[in-house]
Request: fold
Amino acid sequence: MNDLDVTGLRKSYGRFTAVDDVGFTVPAGGSLGLVGESGSGKSTTARLLLGLERPDAGSVLVCGRPVAAVSRRERARLIQIVFQDPFGSLDPRLTVEDCLTEVLKLHFPAPSYGKRVGELLEQVGLGPREAGALPRQLSGGQRQRVAIARALAVQPKVLVLDEAVAALDVSVQAQILGLLADIRAAEEVSYVFITHDLAVVGCVADQVAVMRHGRVVESGPTRQVLTSPQHDYTRLLLDSVPRAAF
Amino acid sequence: MLSIEDLTVRLPHTARPAVDGLSLTVAENETVGLVGESGSGKSLTSRAVLGLLPPKAEATGKIMMDGADVLAMNRAELRQHRTRSVAMIYQDPRAAISPFRRVGDFLTETIAMDRAAAAGLLETVGLRESHLRNRPHELSGGMLQRVVIAAALAGRPRLLLADEPTTALDVTTQAEIIALLRRLRVPGMLFVTHDLELAATICDRVYVMYAGRVMETRPTGELFRDPRHPYTAGLLAATPRLDELGTLPPAIPGRPPDLLAHLPGCPFAPRCPHVLDSCTAGVPGLVGGVACLRAEELCDERP
Amino acid sequence: MNTVVVRPGLRRLKGDGLRTAALVVIALLVLTAILAPLVAPADPDAIDLSATLAGPGGDHLLGTDASGRDLLSRVIHGARSGLLGPLGVVAISTVLGVLAGLTAAWHGGWVDTLLSRSMELVFAFPGLLLAMLVVAMYGPGQTGPMITLAVAYTPFVGRMVRGVARAEMGRPYIAAYRALGFGGLAICLRHLLPNIAPVILAQSTINFGYALLDLAGLSFLGLGVQPPAADWGAMINEGQTAVLMGALGPVLVPGVAIVLSVVAFNIVGESLADRVARR
Reply:
């Protein structure tokens, strides 16, 4: 069974159709790159996947279960998200430990959470020193690690990464991409990378779907789409990637 | 044209200078890249060139623009400097234009020129005269950046200071803006960015900054073919590349130092794969465009 | 080599000093109100017809009023109703305003429209006029005007909370908590409200000063706290006759107390707002 089946997704705001007949699948443990520029509808698609908004038409199935029809907490354990902005995606008042504990408390009632918090932090490469820190005491990369740990805390089947490395420095970005690859190898989780960066997609995604004006204009295996693009827009995107001219 | 000599900028409550002994030149008809990650001091440097240092910042050294020292200028001279000698393009064009004024008013009022001149400038940056009547919210980010560029050109500046001018834009728009900047041929340009590949598409020469210091400065082609500082090499390797599909770029371990850490010797030493004890003993100077004690040796080791 | 040192703005320095002074004034006011019977040199209601309209100094540090009551003692006791009234107004209006504002922001849609329109409706009535209406119907006293003013202040708080909450809701951590399966109420109370609390506190502090002024005004008009109780507004009302007789003290003393308190709360509130904005 696929981890994620999306069919015929549509969402309009007034007369503007943000997402129009979008569909794709992600096999178990797979990784899909959803590529597009601003206004392509990729972020709205993310909100629809997460059940943060209701689609006008179409369905999102995670492991065969419709996210629109399950309870809030169950949905959370099916699909999670990490946002672009490492500064805004954590509650500024909560320490890293409190942030993770709160999530664990909601989903897995247990007498104590210290051990699990420690495991989660270790998994994302953070230690006890960071556990007691507030978000503003951490670097951008560290905050993004915390956001990843918080998403992993509920053991989701699908993790949506909405421009999750776009705001990071190149040297840190490579670390986070490596971390995400390690997590995918260790856990049964599949990824949806939402990004504008074709080069990032090229190194992390098995499949690519290119979005423009709310529609998927081209999709297929990453290598095929990036080396022999069929759609003009894909070609334009590829040509726009800055490359050192030797 | 622009010559920065031994610029050091200290911010209050920090352990080390945010810009540390930086020297940089931009010659006539040259586009120079200033590349660094966040906290490298690149933006502070570009602000210093405009004479726009934050309050309480303490700057030493010289910033010579056509023979005049920016750090020694009084208010009137600075105003002259910012309108006639240097113009700046920022990352977020929406923050640079008043949202309530029409584009035409923005150009004619803030820069003091007539409508015909404004229309001419818009044409230079690839917009139409009709755009003069638009309000900022009616234009896309890329179009607004063109308006900002038009405004920057109005004073016929000697030096264009572009601080991450395309970071907030889409990839396709970025390519258009870069093409435009290349076509404009201002007498000189200092292009500040975190993106080495992007710098390579437009710059003749690149300075790579780390923790307030210049790590390496060489002509773009050379730098990319044969990066000699371990930081430059690491940064280039860490950049995801379209011609290496399916492989994860190797990361540089650790993270950039913050301003509270005092760094003896080479600032990159804690993250460097080739570090020796001698690296932290003293600050390596720029030799042959590289600030690394082992540059020669590492160069010889490679096939 | 030359060194450029940009000096800190003088304004900032002045602002800090002013804020400290305002905080000291407020602290003194609160202490005075609590300890009134202990610190007042005399009984505020003790009439001494042998010493009417005495000047400052001697037995009466700030002089006496037309009935020979000690002005210092009266102004000290007046701090009680002077602070308690606005406290009631601010407490009630903040609770109501936060409830309305948060609900409107979180639900959006028709709930938002309904709440926003009702708040605008209340907004359209001047608070003082509303209070006078209530007094005309139910008679003067402290409670009536206090509750009416609280209702009148609620839309100010509500609109502000709604705006700040909507901005805060745009930040991704709110979406992240929704995606993590937390309910709306839990997110509002545990994440949204604590993060916008500083803004609410700043606004409430400023409102406190205005409420103090409004209530004193009502008392002055004879609609609020009634004489002979020691209340600043009522004291000014009673003092009017003394002014005609050439004695400024009975009006000046409570007047200065009102102005000092209002200005102090305003300064502290504004500086809190500045601090929030700087973050």
In short: Chain A touches chain B at residues 37-38, 139-142, 169-175, 177-178, 181, 196-200, 202-204, 222-223, 226-227, 236-246 (CB under 8 Å). The first helix of chain A runs from residue 42 to 50.
